[in-house]
Specification:
mainly beta; eight-stranded mixed sheet; four-stranded mixed sheet
Length: 718
């Protein structure tokens, strides 16, 4: 179980009536009955109660999660059957953490007068024999003492819930036991006196943040402390040991305690609705308090400047110049001893002091801020940090209307402050060895280069990274591939026999714009729970090679070896000899055609004839993609505005599956080769060879060889 987003609404679809919640079943029309799931929670952090609506936890239900649902009749009994089908412990699962599907032979739940619903999480078949709410509660077993090897089960349950208006029934899930989430991101020396108290379930996310989770049976309120020490810095910055202490964490069954061992609660981040999903802190680094900050506490420090640091340094100084800087680029002969991007490194003061998913903003983050906000007010205030007047500027997001303020503070120059009436916020990036990129508001909002030895204030950003899996990327491709198919004006006429009647049928050949599996070579990432940028993925596929496979492979192999292939089931399954050299024969069966198995209906690995039609009905030329010359196939006879690009990735034979580029492309067919009636016949297939000037069919290519494939879709012309 993982942390929940309190009060987030998740749409759960079950088929039932919707217009009148109290209509009799014989009048039901089978429209969707929607359930919304909420986790009723009093989230606590560092001992303080936080408004649930402002408790923005970045994690949610995950793909594969499931809960069980029971239907309760007017007498309080669980309904065992509906339409003669099992109706107890109905399983609802989610493929993506958002949409929920009913996994049951039961396709309709028709509401009757007096019906109520009871649910629990996570789903288990152990609940199949439950006949009452008491039975469910009895199976919500006490948590194990040692949860270090088995994931802690955070049982959730609902009270009997009556149907509500407009066919939307809200299931309010509650915690059965006390749940603790401790987030820790100190990557250097770290000692925690709380780690030995319990045997936690521990995970580490993509940002290196350690997440400790524990479920406790705490029938009466108890308090718990989380404390420890950690070290920041290195030989360039100097090293210091710091401590933390989150005292009086309240534990009680039914509640969820969230503890950040580092400086700033991530729920304070401001979501400005930016396309990247990056969120901005409402305050500067160094103005945070030692405990969770509510809205009033945040408001109280919005006029403060906080820490003033040189780029890559962690500790404040009285004087900011070349002589006091850790890496004088002139002394070091123009070299930077620090990386050109210090985000999430030991030189990132945000990551060192605030930890978690907080970091310095990149120049891209700053540009996004400039492009998606407008200044709505500016007022002069007295800065207690500087003892002089500065400007407080309010920005409004043009995406969602939320506002955020920043205070001008100039930059530390020697022992003085230069330009205190202007913003100078540090970024994570160098522009060259001497200058870092800086956010400035004069004469308009822009990014400039300024000395990296100067002292800057810092406005952190929250960037919880998610790298999309191959399955997630493949789903995106499958949703869009029909619309992306390219019509090059190629058709073929074939003889078909349907119900004993033989006719001639004509099909258009629609070609994929990229090789199969191209998405596997595209890195797709997003921040803070944002959806995938599907346009970015598709654009990436257009410039990626795809995956090589042997004939009949259903996943990308680690290598291509004759000895391995010859002993495989796929080789033994196809002892076919194509002595007649049939070009349009589809020898590869549906279950072994990776395109048919994974793409929408109509898409196939092409036959040898399809590939012959491809190169004989197009103009072959070249086009440069990312510095490499690709093969371009352009339509003829009115289709000159349509083309596809094929990467010249050569082939791999009896070797490991490593990247390889050259001058030719080789594409699989679904057609067995025409070697004749020799001992080599069962080892061959037809393959299309393309260069930037010509194409040809190879009739005796080896099936164990690693070739790319370009899917084709058949569209019948009526």
């Amino acid at each position: 179980m993982k942390p929940f987003l309190p009060l987030v609404l998740l749409c759960l679809l079950l088929t039932a009536c919707s217009d009148d919640m109290y209509m009799q079943p014989e009048a039901a029309v089978g429209q969707p009955l929607r359930f919304e799931a909420r986790v009723v929670d009093e989230v606590k952090s560092r001992g303080d109660v936080v408004d649930v609506s402002d408790s923005r936890i970045t994690d949610d239900f995950k793909a594969g999660d499931a809960f069980g649902l029971f239907v309760v009749d007017a007498e309080g009994h669980f309904v065992p059957l509906i339409d003669g089908k099992q109706a107890k412990n109905l399983k609802l699962t989610t493929p993506d953490g958002v949409a929920w599907n009913l996994q049951s032979d039961l396709t309709e739940i028709v509401h009757k007068l007096g019906y109520k619903y009871v649910a629990y999480f996570p789903y288990s078949e152990d609940f199949n024999d439950c006949s009452s709410e008491a039975d469910i509660q009895a199976k919500l077993t006490s948590p194990a003492v040692d949860q270090s090897t088995t994931p802690a089960t955070d049982w959730l349950f609902t009270a009997p819930t009556s149907p509500q208006t407009n066919a939307v029934t809200t299931l309010r899930f509650q915690h059965r036991y006390a749940k603790i989430d401790v987030y820790n991101a100190y990557t250097q020396e770290h000692n925690a006196d709380w780690l030995s108290d319990f045997n936690f379930t521990k995970t580490t996310d993509e940002n290196g943040v350690e997440h400790y989770r524990y479920i406790l049976d705490v029938p009466t309120p108890q308090h718990w402390n989380v404390g420890g020490t950690y070290t920041i810095g290195n030989y360039l910055t100097g090293m210091k040991e710091l401590s933390y202490n989150a005292a009086d964490i309240l534990l009680q069954n039914g509640h969820h305690a969230i503890v950040y061992t580092y400086g700033m609660d991530e729920r304070c981040a401001v979501d400005l609705g930016f396309p990247s999903g990056v969120k901005w802190s409402p305050i500067n680094l160094g103005t945070e308090t030692d405990t969770h900050m509510d809205e009033a506490e945040i408001e109280a420090v919005k006029n403060r400047l906080g820490r003033r640091l040189a780029w890559g340094e962690l500790f404040e100084k009285d004087v900011y110049n070349y002589a006091t800087y850790i890496n004088d680029p002139y002394i070091e002969n123009g070299a930077s001893l620090l990386p050109f991007n210090i985000a999430e490194t030991v030189y990132d003061p945000v990551r060192q002091y605030w930890g978690g998913h907080w970091t310095l903003p990149s120049t891209a983050d700053m540009k996004e801020f400039i492009d998606n906000t407008e200044i709505v007010s500016s007022e002069t205030i007295m800065s207690e940090d500087l003892g002089k007047e500065v400007n407080k500027i309010t920005f409004r997001s043009t995406k969602n209307g939320r506002e955020i303020t920043m205070v001008t503070g100039g930059y530390g120059n020697g022992a003085n402050i230069s330009n205190p009436l202007y913003l100078y916020y540090m970024s994570a990036n160098l522009n060259n060895a001497s200058y870092c990129a800086t956010l400035l508001n004069y004469p308009q909002m822009r990014i400039i280069s300024n000395y990296r030895w100067a002292g800057y204030n810092i406005r952190p950003v929250l960037k919880q990274l998610h790298t999309f899996t191959l399955a997630e990327k493949s789903d995106i491709v499958k949703r869009h591939i029909d619309a992306l198919g390219v019509d090059l004006g190629i058709t073929k006429t074939v003889e078909e026999t349907i119900d004993g009647v033989t006719t001639m049928a004509t099909y258009k050949l629609i070609w994929s714009p990229f090789n199969y599996g191209a998405e596997s070579k595209v890195a797709l990432q997003a921040y803070n729970g944002q959806s995938a940028d599907e346009d970015e993925l598709i654009a990436g596929c257009m410039s990626r090679p795809g995956i090589r496979m042997a004939w009949g492979d259903l996943e990308e192999p680690s290598g291509f070896y004759y000895s391995t292939y010859i002993g495989s089931p796929i080789h033994n399954k196809y002892p076919i000899v194509n002595t007649a050299a049939e070009l349009d024969a589809r020898h590869l069966q549906e279950e072994d055609d990776i395109v048919q198995a994974n793409w929408p209906d109509g898409w196939y690995i092409p036959t040898a004839e399809d590939l012959r039609l491809l190169y004989t009905n197009t103009t072959i030329s070249s086009q440069t993609v990312d510095g490499r010359k690709w093969i371009k196939l352009t339509g003829k006879n009115g289709y000159e505005d349509k083309s596809i690009l094929i990467p010249p990735t050569e082939y791999l034979d009896n070797t490991a599956n490593n990247p390889k580029w050259g001058t030719a492309a080789y594409l699989h067919s679904a057609t067995v080769g025409a070697r004749g009636n020799t001992s080599y016949a069962p080892y061959t297939e037809y393959v299309l060879k393309l260069t930037t000037s010509a194409g040809s069919l190879l009739s005796t290519a080896g099936r164990p060889t690693g070739f790319m494939l370009r899917p084709v879709k058949y569209v019948r012309v009526e």
